[in-house]
Write a structure and sequence with these properties.
Length: about 850
């Protein structure tokens, strides 16, 4: 046997498939079978497959890693976008917006926050330039288009903000187009809150009220909630008036929308019945915006009562709402004819401040300025007073030859009390307050007022402004004080030059490149007017020829017009003062009879003076209460110290009260009046056995939607209608019952922040709504009288907030007297049923 054959035989015997197991010395050259095994096609395919799998796995890992990196980048983009939204940075957010939307990772809440930010930016930024408005409009249009193309997730609150933006910016056509698109979408785009905002938009656009009422009813049916259509009806009944109501789906935002429509269209009955619904359901949680609607849109007598109702419920309104209320009262004070009536308005101002502070608000220097300005306007013009200088204060010299009248002394004493009380609370006057005092001093020809303002300003940390110097020039001209006019003008020039120098330094300009300073055209106008009154026209021309300030042709023409104008005020000064200050004749009579009024207690003049003193004493009491509330940090206990009077006219504090129990100026703050008859009527109107059973089925604890105006919340607070706020009243639990010492199963007593029980708060709100309905009917007659008078005189009808028919109380008193005054007790139920437009059988 040959060796190769033997080797092959041996290998096949050991293992045909593993010849490599043979000892090396028995192996010959590698060829033949081994070569075939190592290079067989199956082996090659196996090895190639493994290699491909390794490469495929590697590519997959690389792809997954790339995808993960891409996702990580997208997440970072979205997170950065959300961070800008949360920090209320609109421009950086809009830079990231195109990249964030491409990630397709945005959610409905992102759309909501973006729309809210654009809306709030528009509402909170004052004096937007044309370019800024155009930029915001373009951003909103981009968002709307992305919503329509479904590149952005839908959200009902985002839709609400977009509609509100269109309303606020008066882009009604664009808003209407967006609303038409929303009507074709499902609940992911629109809900009851969105419908409420849409009704407001359409109301401002002028859509008829009938159409809006139909839309309101349609929304109630489309989004029924827990018997919302029933509970929002004017004659709905609560299961338990002493307990908070907790229902899901009560459409407060929708109610606000229709309230706006009713107010704008003059349906005061429907508006107040809607407010009654809100106060019945949530007596302590009615959104600020609902109260503001009435305060801004209704006549002063109604707005004042609504303001106090909000404070009584513990609702803290914005400071500007208090300012609007005080300004309206100031307008009413201007239209009053006697010192007593004017002092009653000052008392009403302090009553509003007291209520505001008692509800948790914080008065400020702006509010103080309004009160001071209106108090000083009580003083008659052309009354000279001698003063003893005692530091920073000006004290009337009682023994001077031309001594101050009793009324002047009382007013100055009251002014000192007000300033001192507010200063103790840390509330100091603003520069605008001092400017107003200077202006009033000039108008009334009272140098002591101007001196008082200057001394107080110097002792404060405030710096005079251009308005301050302008007021000094004007006041000196009114006093025909030539030296003071020139001195005040010199101060104005110095301030303007210093201001221009600071601006040049800030801009990095040297003296050679500093532009010539320029005065405001109003500065030249007041100078020309003052020089005309002091008969020194040459001084104006001298200032123009000096060439210190830049003057263009328009300013020169303005100066010439002012110099050539006839000074009718100086020619008819006495007649003008008599027409502007009807109380002058009364004050003059009081001045001439001062000694008799003080000594003779039986004269009418004495009674008048004592009445004024009593009013001022009552004002001092109010100041003490305001001081105590603010310093204590506690809310006012309104149940023991009610906001009396709730009406501007003391004879109408309680429209339905018998004359024998009408409150008087001397009534104690905690006076209680018998109202069993009214409570009996209240029970008839607000309780019903069948309705109690019906309403009880929907009283399960859940959430209620709250409508908080997004623009009201500055700096990005909760948006309008954005969140369903849980009812913040304590729940009926065994623990709460034990805390109040109640037996198991008995409902606890719930209180408002102002210490009213919910049952009592609902009752007093119901009474106030009846009074408002009564008051609104009087104001409607006053309005129609004003319309007829305007037509008779061929003059335009005044529609502004300061219109006489809205703020004046004289015509309203006449209408009240002609209507027979307060309703008789026997007619209360019939009267209330008529006012509410439905009768309780």
């Amino acid at each position: 046997m040959s060796r190769p054959f033997a080797q092959r035989l041996l290998r096949s015997a050991v293992c045909p498939s593993a010849p490599f197991l043979l000892p090396l010395r028995s192996n010959g050259p590698v060829h033949g079978a081994w070569g075939l095994v190592a290079l067989s096609p199956s082996t090659r395919r196996c090895m190639a497959s493994k290699s491909k799998r390794r490469k495929s796995r590697s590519k997959l890992l690389e792809s997954e890693l790339a995808q993960e990196n891409k996702l990580q980048g997208q997440l970072e983009t979205v997170l950065d976008f959300r961070a800008e939204l949360q920090s209320f940075s609109l421009q950086p957010a809009m830079v990231l917006y195109p990249h964030a939307i491409k990630t397709k990772l945005l959610e409905g809440k992102d759309t909501r926050e973006l729309a809210r930010l654009v809306h709030n930016t528009y509402r909170s930024t004052r004096n937007l330039s044309k370019e800024q408005k155009e930029a915001l409009a373009a951003q909103i249009e981009t968002i709307v288009e992305d919503l329509k193309q479904e590149r952005l997730p839908h959200d009902p609150i985002a839709s609400l903000h977009i509609i509100s933006y269109y309303k606020d910016s008066q882009q009604f056509d664009q808003g209407l187009d967006f609303w038409k698109w929303l009507l074709q979408q499902d609940e992911s785009c629109a809900d009851a809150r969105t419908y409420g905002a849409a009704i407001e938009l359409l109301a401002y656009q002028g859509v008829p009220l009938e159409v809006l009422e139909e839309l309101y009813q349609y929304a109630l049916k489309r989004f029924p909630g827990d018997y919302s259509e029933y509970h929002l009806a004017p004659d709905a009944i609560l299961a338990d008036r002493s307990q908070p109501i907790a229902m899901s789906g009560t459409r407060m935002s929708l109610l606000q929308g229709i309230l706006t429509a009713r107010i704008l269209h003059g349906d005061w009955q429907g508006a107040y019945l809607g407010l009654d619904v809100a106060l019945r359901l949530y007596p302590t949680q009615v959104p600020q915006r609902i109260f503001e609607l009435f305060i801004y849109e209704r006549p002063l007598s109604e707005a004042y009562k609504v303001f106090l109702m909000a404070c009584r419920a513990g609702v803290v309104l914005k400071p500007n709402v208090l300012n609007v209320t005080l300004e309206g009262l100031g307008r009413a004070e201007e239209l009053e004819t006697t010192v007593q009536e004017k002092l009653s308005i000052i008392s009403a101002m302090l009553n509003a401040v007291r209520a505001y502070a008692g509800a948790g608000g914080v008065p400020d220097g702006v509010h103080l300025g309004v009160i001071v300005r209106n108090l000083l306007s009580l003083m008659p013009p052309n009354t000279e007073m001698n003063f003893i200088d005692e530091g920073a204060d000006a004290v009337p010299a009682e023994n001077a030859e031309n001594s101050a009248t009793d009324i002047d002394i009382l007013i100055y004493d009251l002014l000192g009390s007000i300033m001192e009380t507010f200063a103790q609370m840390g509330i100091n006057p603003t520069i605008a307050t001092f400017n107003s005092i200077i202006s009033i001093g000039g108008d009334l020809k009272r140098q002591e007022l101007i001196d008082l303002a200057i001394r107080a300003l110097h002792s404060s940390e405030l710096e005079p402004t251009a308005v301050t110097y302008r007021a000094l020039v004007t006041a000196a001209g009114e006093l025909q004080d030539e030296e003071s006019v020139k001195d005040a003008w010199g101060l104005l020039e110095e301030a303007a030059l210093l201001r221009a120098e600071k601006q040049a330094v800030a801009a990095g300009l040297d003296e050679s490149n500093t532009p010539q300073p320029k005065l405001d055209k109003l500065d030249w106008k007041v100078l020309a007017r003052a020089c005309r009154r002091i008969n020194d026209v040459a001084f104006v021309r001298e200032q123009v020829e000096k060439g210190v300030f830049v003057l263009d042709g328009n300013v020169l023409a303005l100066i010439e017009r002012e110099l050539g104008r006839e000074d009718k005020k100086s020619a008819n000064e006495a007649q003008s003062h008599a027409s502007q200050s009807p109380q002058v004749s009364q004050v003059s009579q009081t001045q001439s009879d001062t000694k008799e009024n003080v000594t003779d207690q039986t004269s009418s003049g004495a009674q008048e003076t004592m009445t004024i003193q009593e009013r001022i004493s009552a004002i001092d009491t109010q100041l003490s209460e305001i001081h105590e509330i603010v310093l204590s940090g506690k809310l006012l206990d309104a149940s023991n110290s009610p906001f009396i009077p709730m009406s501007l006219d003391e004879n109408e504090c309680a429209v339905f009260a018998p004359e024998s129990v009408l409150p008087t100026p001397n009534a104690p703050a905690n006076a209680k009046f018998e109202d069993s008859k009214m409570r009996e009527i209240y029970d008839k109107f607000t309780t019903d056995i069948q309705s109690l059973q019906y309403g009880a089925s929907s009283s399960a604890a859940s959430e209620s939607d709250s409508y908080c105006d997004s623009a009201d919340a500055e700096n990005g607070s909760t948006a309008q209608g954005e969140e369903d706020a849980k009812v913040d009243e304590p729940k009926t639990t065994a623990a709460s019952q034990q805390l109040q010492g109640l037996p198991q199963g008995q409902s606890p007593i719930h209180f408002s922040s102002t210490n009213y029980t919910l049952a009592e708060l609902r009752y007093v709100n119901w009474v106030s709504i009846n009074e408002l309905l009564f008051d609104a009917r009087l104001n409607e007659i006053v309005k129609q009288t004003a319309v007829d008078q305007a037509m008779k005189e061929s003059k335009p009808f005044e529609r502004g907030r300061d219109a006489k028919w809205r703020c004046g109380l004289g015509m309203r008193r006449k209408v009240y007297r002609d209507a027979g005054g307060a309703a008789k007790e026997a007619d209360w139920e019939k009267c209330i049923a008529g006012l509410r437009r439905w009768r309780k059988e």
